[in-house]
Design brief:
The structure is a single chain. By secondary structure, the chain is an alpha/beta fold. It has 2 domains: about 140 residues, no CATH class; about 220 residues, Vaccinia Virus protein VP39 (Rossmann fold). The chain is about 45% helix and about 20% strand. It is built from 16 helices and 10 strands. Strand 4, helix 14 and strand 5 form a beta-alpha-beta unit. The protein starts with 18 loop residues before the first helix and ends with a strand. It binds S-adenosylmethionine. The site of S-adenosylmethionine has 23 residues, from helix 9, helix 11 and strand 2. Belongs to the methyltransferase superfamily.
Amino acid sequence: ELPEVAASASLSPMPAATKDQLVAAWKRGLAAQIKESGALPPGNAKGAPAAWAKPNTGAAAAARRALSSPRTGSSSGDVEAEAVAAWRAAPAAERRRAAKAALEADASDAEAAFALYEAEDELGDGDAAVAALRAALAADPSHAAAARLLAAAEGGADAASAAANDAAGAAEYARQIFDGYATTFDEHLTGTLKYSVPKELALAADAASGGGRSGVDPPRYACIVDAGCGTGLSVEPFAGRADSVIGIDVSSKMLEVARGKGLYSTLLCDDLVSGLATLAQGQCDLIISADTLMYVGRLDGFFEQAERVLASGGVLAFSVESAERATSQGDAGSVALGEDGIGLQPSGRFCHTRGYVEGLAARSGDGDGGAWETAAEPRDVMGRMDGDKPVYATLHVFVRR
Ligand SMILES: C[S@@+](CC[C@H](N)C(=O)[O-])C[C@H]1O[C@@H](n2cnc3c(N)ncnc32)[C@H](O)[C@@H]1O
């Protein structure tokens, strides 16, 4: 049943054992495991998950490795999801010990190196975190998350521009992160991180749609596209107000959660630009993209497809992370801002200046003032927390001419 941990499982048949005897045997196994690895095996931790500053990709693989004693049963039936949640709940110092032990056993284990990076980063040891990223990349040169975070840590406008231009790398990075984050995303975002973007964006989009097709308030839509739909939080404010809702996301695990909510008529597992490219010209009257474009970098492809897919009078509403705020905050020196106005932050996410977005909108169309009219002045909102720091989102809303 657990092929990925079978190599390290032990089997001790206890016919006719009482519950107390089984519990005692489990505790003995657990004690032996802690003695050996210095860490509590995932799935056995108590209490709420620790604050998690950013999603991680190393957790799943590291948790699988750390699962080295037979389990007493899985309450949700999803062993890997439980293992990941328990791994995340373990204190960073414990995860550091476990990741180091895994690296000592196999120095070419990229996921262990990445798990070490996450622990060091959380513990505030920047040099050790960067060294771990280098080790992850040396072990696996195609490790998208390690490459991105190393570029962000090393800084420089060239690194920011190179990352922003690499659309395929950006999509792969997002897929890695969000595939490992899907099961805890909703609770984490709306609880711990105080996520406000969907509500703010829906208000802005509704205001720009001029009362919607039917002129009633709140407006109705014929077809909404949610670009980077994730688990569906961003369309919840539009529930029951659209004839069709199309979600596009690169993470199949996020889409699985979204599918379960029944909010979308169509879900496409694709990069958002290529997903939009499969839709018909003028098919939609609203495109939203909440808390997604900071994973994308350059936005010209997104704008081109939005221009094609939106009907005249349709609304394009999205959030980006504010480059103006990012470069004026405490760690301003560590945000590499390229000349085009796209920055790469220590978090590995991009930020965009207002000028960059407005420039794209102005350059669109075939003359005659461009394809877009600004529906409302860009507005900054406190979009969510990242650890103990607020992340400011700039909301942009345009109407297709
Ligand atoms: C922070 S989540 C936000 C999800 C949702 N919009 C919300 O507000 O809850 C970002 C989502 O964007 C997706 N994403 C990032 N880059 C993408 C890309 N290039 N193409 C498609 N989806 C992408 C991720 O997989 C993730 O589900």
